[in-house]
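Proteins fold reproducibly. Look at a concrete instance:
___
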Amino acid sequence: MSWLPPAVIGLIDIALVAEVSVVRSDGRPMTYPLIPMWDGERVLMTSSILFSRKLEHIKKDHRVCLSLSDPVALQGRQDRATIIGDAAVIDGDPHVDWERVLPLWAAKEPVILQLLKSRVAFPLFFERAVIEVTPRRVLYWPDGDASAEPQTSVEPATALAAPVADARTGVPA
C-alpha cells in the first residue's frame, strides 16, 4: 500500500500530462511534458530514445519534480499536486522493455494501441526507455490555490532520515 494520499494518486491516474522537471548538467532545471502512470509504488513514464536529453539529465542527477497542474490535462479537476522524487531510467532493450507499462498507458490513452499496430511506420517512436520515479515528498493543494500552504506528505523512510524542510520549497530549515 502506498503512502501517497489517495487524491494525489487520483490526479496521477487522470492526468494526461505532467510537467516533469529534471536537473541539467549546469544545475538549471529543465521541464518536459510526459504522460504519468501509477503502478502502485512509483510514477512511470516513457520517453522515446530519439528524445534522449531528458534521459541523460536523469542519469546524471536522479532528482526530479512532477507538477500535476494543467487544468486541461487534469480534465477539469481543481486540485493540484507536486511530487518530488528520485528517478531511474530503465533502458535495457528499447524495443520491448517499455511494453510492461503498455497496459497502464493504454488505460489512459487508448489510441496508443492503434499506433502500436503501425509500429513499423514509427520505429523510433517505439524505441523507448521507462522512467521510474520514486516519490519522496508530495505537496497537495485540494482547492488548486498554490498561493496557500499545501498539505505535505513525506515518504516514511525519508521523514526519518531527512532534516525538517520548508514545506513550500523543500529547503532544509
Remarks:
- The chain has a mean pLDDT of 86.
- The beta strands are 18-23, 29-34, 37-38, 43-48, 63-68, 80-90, 128-141, 151-154.
- The CA atoms of residues 79 and 144 lie 4 Å apart.
